[in-house]
Amino acid sequence: MDKQSRLARTILNGFTAYFAEFENITLSARTRFENAEWRATQEASMRRIDIYKLQVLETIDVVDYIAQDRLHDLDFWAETRDLYAELVRGMTNFEIAETFYNSIFNAVFEHRWIRDDYAFVFSPQGDMPPVDVRRVLNQYRTKGDFKATVANLLFDYGMSLPYEDYDREVARVTEVMTAAVEDAGYDHRADLELHALEHHFFRNKAAYIVGRISGKGLQIPFVLPMLHTEDQERPSVYLDACLLGSDIISKLFSFTRTYFMVDASIPSQHVLFLQQLMPRKAVSEIYSCIGHHRHGKTYYFRTASRHMRSTEDAFIPAPGIKGMVMAVFTLPSYEYVFKIIKDRFTPPKEVTHQEVRDKYQLVKRWDRAGRMADTQEFANLVFEASRFSDELMEELEATCSSQLEIKGRALIIKHCYVERRMQPLNLYLKDASDEEVDAVMLDYGNAIKELAAANIFPGDMLLKNFGVTRHGRVVFYDYDEIQPLTDINFRKIPPPRDEFEEMSGQPWYSVGPNDVFPEEFRLFFSGNARARKAFDQLHSDLYEASFWTNLQDKLRDGFVEDFFPYSGKLRFQR
Questions:
Q1: Helices 38-67 and 94-109 sit at what angle, rounded to 10 degrees?
Q2: Which 8-state DSSP code applies to residue 572?
Q3: How many angstroms separate the Cα of 408 from the Cα of each of 247, 361, 385, 557?
Q4: Residue 348 pLDDT > 80, yes or no?
Q5: What residues pair up with 377 in beta bridges, in sequence order?
Q6: What CA–CA distance (Å, rounded) separates 344 from 352?
Q7: CA–centroid distance for 455 within its chain
Q8: In the chain, N or C: fewer CB atoms in 10 Å?
Q9: CA Rg, the chain, in Å?
C-alpha cells in the first residue's frame, strides 16, 4: 500500500474515531436528563465541542509520520484526496467525513491552497447525501381520533420516569393541536398524520419531541418541550408547552443557543426534515444546531461562495458606531457580517489579540442562553478585491492592515469571524415607538440577566454591543470583555468621607482590576433618555450590587438556570 492510500485511510480512521466519540457523548444525554444531572450536561456539551480539535491534532501526528518528506507536496495531497473521496463514497455521513479531511488539510497548509484539487471545497457527491427522512420518522395516523393518536405518541416518547400526569398532557396537547388544525381550515376529525423524529432532542434542562402535523396540503411543525420535575422523592417528567409553527420553532433552533444533542447517526436525515419544518433556516445553521458546527462552517462557505458569484454589490462598513476592537463589514445583499480584530485597540481597551480570540472560543463552548450569537472563525478567507468599496478599503487599511494581503485581484483576510447580521440596539432605538422602546428594553435587561444566570458577565454593556434579531430578540455580540460572572467583584460605591472627596473628579476609593460598580450602569444610557427611563422602570435591580452577589452565591452552589427558548405565554400552567 502506497503512502497516499495509507494517509487516506489514516484520516478516515481519525474521522471514524471522532464520530464514534461524538455519538457516545450524545447517546448518554438521555440518561443525564433522566437523572437531572445538569452540571454534567453542561460539561458534556463542552466536551463534545472539544473532541473535534483533539481528534484532528491526534490524527495530524500520524499524518505527519506517514507523509514525512511529502507532507507539503500538493500533488501528493491531490492523489490522497481522490483516494479519500472513493473511501467515503456512499457513506451516509460522507459530508461530515469530507469536512474532517478538510480540517486535516488546513492544519497542514495553514488554511492556504484550499482548492477542490486538494480538499473538498465542494463535494463530488453533492452537498448532502440522498436520504429518505421517513426512515427517522415515527408516523401516527389519526383516523379521526386525534386524542388517541396524541396519547400513542406521548406513550412512545415517554422516559424511564413516569409523566407527572399523563392524561393531563394528552388533553393539553390535543386541545392545542386540534385548534391549530381548525384554524388552518381543516377538520381535526379528518384522517391526518403526526410525524415525529424518532429520538428526543436534548439541551440544557429540557428534552424535545420534534415533528409535524401533516395532511393533504397541510403541514404544521410542532415541538413538545419535556421538563424534569426534579422532585427528589417522586421524580417525573411533564410537557411544558406545545409549540406550533415555523417561526416559533425557528427560535428554538436559533444561532444564539447551545447545540442540541440528538441521536442522529445519519445527520442529513435530521437536517433535511428540520429544514422542511423551517424553510427560512439556513442549512448550515441546522447542521450546527445538532452539534456538527464544523460541517456547518463548510456548508456556510459553500453557500457564501455561491452568493458571491451570483451578486455584484460591494462590501461596505457595517452600520453602527465603530467598535474599539473589531472592524466590521458586510454585503447589503447578505445577512451576515465579517469581523476582523484591529491591529491597535482604541483606549481604554487593553486586551490582546489572543485574549479576544480566547473570548470567542469561550462563547463557542459556553451555554449561550439564547443571548450570544454563534460565530464561524476563518483563516485566509479570499475575496474579490474589486468588490470592496473605497470607504471600506480605507477603513481596513487604517485599522487592520496586518490582517490583509493582496494577491492580484484577490484580497486575502488572514483571520476573521462571521456571524448573523443584526440591527444594533442603539440604531433600533432611534426610530422605535414608545411601545417598542419599552419592549426592547425589557428584553435588553432580560438578556443581561440571562447571561448572568449562565455565569457570563458581558463587561461592556453599551447599547451598541447588542443587536436585535428579526424576531425582535436582543442578543449580545461584543465578546472582548466577557468573563465568568463568578470572577467579578461586585461592589457598592462607598460614600465620600468629607466634602473634598465628594467634590473630587477622581474616585476616592480603590478600584481593583475585576471590581465592578453596578450603580454606574446608568452611564450606558447616556444620550438616550427614553431608553434609560424604560430600563429604570423595568430593571432597576441591576443597579444593585446585591443582585449580582446573590446570583454569584447561587452559581457557586451549583445552580443551573432554566432557559426557555419560547415565550412564557406559551407555557402550560402546572
A1: 60
A2: P
A3: 44, 33, 9, 58
A4: no
A5: 417
A6: 9
A7: 17
A8: N
A9: 26
Secondary structure element (H or E) that encloses residue 312, with its range: none
Which DSSP category does 163 fall into? B
Q: Cell 432611534 belongs to which residue?
A: 430
pLDDT (tens digit per residue) in 473-523:
999 999 988 999 999 999 998 877 766 666 666 776 778 888 999 998 888
Please tell me the number of Cα atoms within 13 Å of 360 on its side-chain side. 22
Q: What is the rounded CA–CA span in Å between residue 531 and residue 523?
A: 12
464-470: long-range pairs with CB below 8 Å, 24+: 464/320, 464/321, 464/323, 464/424, 464/425, 464/426, 466/424, 466/425, 467/373, 467/422, 467/423, 467/424, 467/425, 468/422, 468/423, 468/424, 468/425, 468/428, 468/440, 469/254, 469/256, 469/420, 469/422
Lowest mean pLDDT among 8-17, 76-85, 248-257, 497-506: 497-506
Say if residue 178's pLDDT is above 70.
Answer: yes
pLDDT in tens, 24-66: 999 999 999 999 999 999 999 999 999 999 999 999 999 999 9
C-alpha distance from residue 72 to each of 69, 100, 300, 386, 549 (Å): 8, 18, 27, 31, 54
- Burial of residue 280 (CB within 10 Å: 0-12, 13-18, 19+) is exposed
The model's confidence at residue 349, banded by pLDDT at 50, 70 and 90, is confident
Q: Locate cell 451549583: which residue? A: 558
> Amino acid identity, residue 101?
Y
Torsion, Cα of 297, 302, 308, 314 (10° steps): 10
Task: Provide φ and ψ at 255, rounded to 5°.
Answer: -70, -5
Q: What is the dihedral of CA 248, 253, 254, 257, to 10 degrees?
A: 130
Other CB atoms within a 10 A radius of the CB of residue 208 amount to 22
CA 362 to chain centre: 12
Place of cell 460541517: 295
Any idea which residues carry the catalytic annotation? 374
- Minimal CA–CA distance to 371: which of 281, 427, 311, 446? 446
Peptide bond into 348 cis (omega under 30): yes
Q: What are 421-442's pLDDT values in tens digits?
A: 999 999 999 999 999 999 999 9
- Residue 341 DSSP one-character state: E
| 3-state DSSP assignment of residue 432 | coil
The cell for 223 is: 415541538
Q: Would you tell me how many other CB atoms lie within 10 Å of the CB of residue 86? A: 10
Is the predicted pLDDT of residue 526 greater than 70, yes or no?
no
